[in-house]
Structure formats: structure tokens, C-alpha cells
Amino acid sequence: MALLSIRNLTTVFHAEEGEIKACDQVSMDIPAGKTIGLIGETGCGKSVLGMSILRLLPRNAVIRGEIYYKDQDVLKMNGDQLKRLRGNEIALLPQSPSTSLNPVLKIGFQIAEGLHLHRKTKWEQAWEKAVEMLDFLKLPEPEKRVQEYPHQLSGGMKQRALAAASITGNPSLLIADEPTKGLDAVLRAQVVGVLRQLARETGAAMLLITHDLKVAASLCDQIAVMYAGEILEQGAAEQVLKDPVHPYTKGLLASLPEHGLHPIPGYSPSLLDVPAGCKFHQRCSLARDLCAEKCPPLQVINGVQVRCFFGDQSGEPQQELHNRDLQEAAV
């Protein structure tokens, strides 16, 4: 049974410009102890999905569908239930530690506060736990660091401090939102090490939201590929990243420097003006008339779930399938 189960999740923002559907009928499961990667281009709705799980969206957002955590319906929880869920059961590791840490509070306070509030731990014990967590995450001189302010720490130290604040309450699920965004290669490697340590030694499940395919490949058990609010492909990480089925996933991999740096033509559609049919068809070299008329359902192809009419179930090359009669290909 999944620790977290999402079914037909749709998140809509009501803005002056119109209705923005940031997540569209998203379904996924996060098993206990597993790391699930959510990948895709910037603006595809990845972070909105993470914030929808915790119900940390602004008032103009409407969430529909089902989110079950340990058989509890998150969308029906009241304020007190949500407070117990956030930080206690499900923790968030947000983007950019430089902006996520409070600059006027000591590192120790920011780590211990969660334990004091959520676990009702006495302040002295919570402070000791903060030192223990920094030591656990291999931060040098943890007794000194808890007395320091964020500006006194390096980027890698800030990331570890933020991770310590996130996991101090022993959550069962950690949502890591673009933890390597904007970091250089050295810091990125440090963050990956921290996340790997968290997953290995705490046993917590993790939803890793990232556009960095290398990070996803090194950390994730399963991968879900998102585009314009929809999941286009999901399955075992090794299979999705080494032998993808969906043209969009193939395009993402081809755009990497080690694969020749071949970017996908065109741009992602605006969520205010999403095309009919398959949302990717305007950029897809395999697109046919059917793709512009009808949204393909998720189907299992080669062991992964794929939202594509022209996916190959028989091992036949994609181009040969593309050249078939349209009606036959749709079946």
C-alpha cells in the first residue's frame, strides 16, 4: 500500500487573466521508503503539485481530486489536522536555503523550533537534538553552528541546516523542491550527498521535484515526467531515463550535453492557453491529426505508463509505427 496516493489531482488558479490549470488529472503513488522523482521543464506544474499535497497554496487556488496519506484524506483535513501533518508527518525541503532560512534567527533555533512545536519537546532537549542533527548531516563543529546565523554559513552548510530543520521531527515523507536549483557543480554534489544520506538513514519516502535529470538518475527509484500540468510518462527510474517511450522524455534526454545538446523545438504552452488534444503535439515530430483532436490516456507500454497514441507495445521502431495508418496506430 502506498504511503501517499494521489488520484486525479487538478489544481486551478483563478487569476485576472483567466483560469490557470497547473496540475491536470495527476495520479501517482509514493511507496514508503522510496524516492520518486518528478521531472520536467520549468513552469510545468511540478512545484504546484508538491504544494498541493501540503495545501500550501494561495487562496485563489482550488484543488480537486484525492490525496490520501496513510489512508487519511488530506483535502478534507481541518486546520489542526494540517498543522500536525506538516513538518511532523510530511516535511518540506524548499528551494534556495539562502531565502528559506530566516536571516535574523540562529540556526539552532530554526532547527529546534519544529521539535518544540510539533513534538512538544522541551526547549533544552530540542536544542540538543539540533546539534545532533547537524552532526548527523556531517556539518563541522555543530555546537558552534547552532549559535550562528545563516549569513555565517557557506551554501553547502545552509543546505544541510535546512535539511536538518526538515527532518528533525522524523517525517515519513520528505518533499524536496528543486534542492539543486541554481547551485554550482560542487554544491550540487553536496546536496545530492545529503539527500542520499537522508533517504538511506532515515528511511523516509521522498518526492524529489527537479529539472536536473542527473540528480534524478542518481537518487530516484521511480520517475514521473510532467509537461504542462500532466504526467506523460512514469515508471522505474532506470527504464524511463535509459529507454523512454514518450517523445517528450526522449527529447529531454536528447537535450543533455552528453547526448548531443539537441533541444526540443518550440516552447512549452502557456497554462492559460493549453492546446487541445495531446499537450505536446505542437512540438512532437510524431504528431498526427489524432494528437491534435484527442488527449491520449495513460496506458502501460514496455512496463511504464505512457500518455501517447504512438507508443510502441510490440518493440517495433517508433518511426515504423508512425508510418502506419492513423486509425490502426490509435488503437
UniProtKB/TrEMBL annotation:
Its EC number is 7.2.2.11. It comes from Syntrophaceticus schinkii. One of its GO terms (cellular component) is plasma membrane. Its main location: membrane. One of its GO terms (molecular function) is ABC-type nickel transporter activity. GO terms for biological process: peptide transport. It is found in: Cell membrane. Pfam families: ABC_tran (PF00005), oligo_HPY (PF08352). The keyword Ion transport applies. It catalyses: Ni(2+)(out) + ATP + H2O = Ni(2+)(in) + ADP + phosphate + H(+). PROSITE patterns: ABC_TRANSPORTER_2. InterPro entries: AAA+_ATPase, ABC_Ni/Peptide_Import, ABC_transporter-like_ATP-bd, Oligopep_ABC_C, P-loop_NTPase. SUPFAM superfamilies: P-loop containing nucleoside triphosphate hydrolases. SMART domains: AAA (SM00382). It is a peripheral membrane protein. Residues 4-253 form the ABC transporter domain. Belongs to the ABC transporter superfamily. Keywords: ATP-binding, Cell membrane, Ion transport, Membrane, Nickel, Nickel transport, Nucleotide-binding, Translocase, Transport. The keyword Protein biosynthesis does not apply. The complex is composed of two ATP-binding proteins (NikD and NikE), two transmembrane proteins (NikB and NikC) and a solute-binding protein (NikA). This is Nickel import system ATP-binding protein NikD.
